Every structure is written in C-alpha cells, then in structure tokens.
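Quick one, probably user error.
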C-alpha cells in the first residue's frame, strides 16, 4: 500500500520538479511585476526581479534581460515594470518592504534608507573594505521627491548658494538657472536617489577626493566596488568615449546596477514630463531634455 501510493505520486512529483526548475519567461516576467512587495526584505530567496544575491558570482542585470546572443528586446511590456512611484521617489521607505535601513555603523548622514538589495551589497562591501583598513560610510541614500524638491528649490530661490552665488539674483533666466543647479543636483522626479539604489559615499565635496584620504578611498572603490555590483555612474565626461552631457563627475556617487540597471531601462518608458513638475523651475525641464541629457547620460561602463 505504502509503495503503491509512492508510485502513484511519482508522476506528479516529476511534473512539479520540472515546473520549478524551468519557469517560463512569462512566469518570470509576471513575478517581476510583483515589486510592491509581498516578500519582505528578510527573505533569503532572491525575488524574481532581482539577480542572485551575490553579484560577485553573477553581476548580471535582472532576469528580464534577454541572453546576450539574442537581438535587443523591445521595451518591456507594462506588466513587468516596477511601479512608477519607485522611479520618481513617491514612496515612504520606512513603510515599504522593498527598502532597508542602513546599519548605524555605515551611516554618515540623515538619509538612511536604501533598496534592500543595494543596502545588503553595500554592507558586504563596507565590511570587506573595513577588514582591509578602509572606512566607508553612506552620506546620502534614498531621497524622496519632496526631499529633492527641497534641495532643488533651496538652490533655485538662493537659500542655498551655488558656486558662492544666490542664483535667483545672479541667473534670472529659468533655463540657465536650472542648468546651473544641474551641475550636481537633479530635478525632482529625475534623481537616481529616488530609487534607493544609489549611494553617496564618504563625502559629496569634490575637493575631498583630491586629498590623500579621498584618493585612498576612491582608488579602493574603483578597484573593488564593481565586484559588489556598484558602478560610478557620473564619471568624467568630455573625452573621447566618455559622456558628453549630464552632471559633472561625482566620485562619491555609486550605483547598485543589478537593480538600477533595469530601473534606468524602464525610466524613459514610464516617466514623462508630466511627472517632472510640481517644483520651481520645472518648466525648464522639457527644453533641457533632462531625461535624455541627464537621467540617461551615465558612464558607458555602467550601461547594461
Ligand atoms: Zn548622489
């Protein structure tokens, strides 16, 4: 009786094993849509929209990327997109299971939330760095639309000086004033900090990276951060093969590509100029073509 039942169950077990081992692309895409997360950040299993947990083993983009041998895929269907609110910072990370708090010892400022996969990878990197005598701290991580609006408008109105000047007085033309702020700061709805995947490490002062300590840290990051999935998206620009538009070089800003790579692909599909509004100077965004010339202008080595 016992062995008879086992034999009867065998075909079912085989069928289950086959389905588990070979989820179809459609199934993977459907699972990738579930980013408003029912699976909280503590799960051991990688979610379908994410790569394996260890980017050193597979620093590859998300599972929705076709194999390299296949021709470029058309834009992803809407059902596999992360909700647009994640692309424009319209969330509260303290109540969103896709986000995790940066451990206290690695905090270097008041922005202490990041995408849980990015935080996990950063902690692994920072612990390895520490074991080798390098201290990494995150001085800025996730920023919401309203956080970015505050930063932007403080520069727009002259409350925060830009290049030592009050831009409201020194640059009256809206487009020119926006371009000045865009040297280092994003318009609300266009910052990679909205995604929680990008971290400013140790300092946001360009001069720091000319000091001995700054060079020391930067050289370590250049040599090792890619092993943990991080890439310096705002690289040097202007020389052959480099970026031609966008923000100035930011040696402090590192992006966790296994998530940010596919967010960037989705961004121009889901976000338009009707999202980039609701702040002072937003009328300048379309004329500057801010999505193409800033959001999409990243280090070619970070493009996936
Ligand atoms: Zn940054």
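Nope, works fine. Designed sequence:
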């Amino acid at each position: 009786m016992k062995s008879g039942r086992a034999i009867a169950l065998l075909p079912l077990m085989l069928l289950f094993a086959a389905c588990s081992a070979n989820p179809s692309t459609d199934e993977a895409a459907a699972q990738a849509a579930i980013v408003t997360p029912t699976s909280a950040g503590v799960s051991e299993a990688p979610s379908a929209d994410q790569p394996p947990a260890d980017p050193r083993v597979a620093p590859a983009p998300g599972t929705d990327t076709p194999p390299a041998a296949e021709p470029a895929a058309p834009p992803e269907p809407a059902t596999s997109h992360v909700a647009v609110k994640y692309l424009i910072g319209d969330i509260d990370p303290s109540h969103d299971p896709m986000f995790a708090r940066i451990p206290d010892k690695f905090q270097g400022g008041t922005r202490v939330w990041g995408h849980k996969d990015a935080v996990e990878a950063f902690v692994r990197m920072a612990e390895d760095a520490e074991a080798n005598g390098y201290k990494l701290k995150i001085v800025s991580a996730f920023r919401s639309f309203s956080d970015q609006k505050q930063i932007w408008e403080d520069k727009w109105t002259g409350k925060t000086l830009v290049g030592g000047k009050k831009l409201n007085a020194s640059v009256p033309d809206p487009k020119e004033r926006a371009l000045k702020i865009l040297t280092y700061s994003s318009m609300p709805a266009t910052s990679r900090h909205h995604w929680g995947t990008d971290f400013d490490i140790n300092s946001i002062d360009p001069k720091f990276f000319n000091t001995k300590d700054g060079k020391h840290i930067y050289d370590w990051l250049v040599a090792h951060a890619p092993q943990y999935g991080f890439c310096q998206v705002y690289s040097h620009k202007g020389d052959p093969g480099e970026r031609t538009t966008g923000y100035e070089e930011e040696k402090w800003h590192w992006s966790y590509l296994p998530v940010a790579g596919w967010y960037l692909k989705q961004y121009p599909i889901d976000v338009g100029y009707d999202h980039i509004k609701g702040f002072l100077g937003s009328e300048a965004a379309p004329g500057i073509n801010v999505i193409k010339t800033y959001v999409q202008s990243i280090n070619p080595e970070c493009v996936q």
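Confidence is low (pLDDT under 50) at residues 1-69, 74-79.
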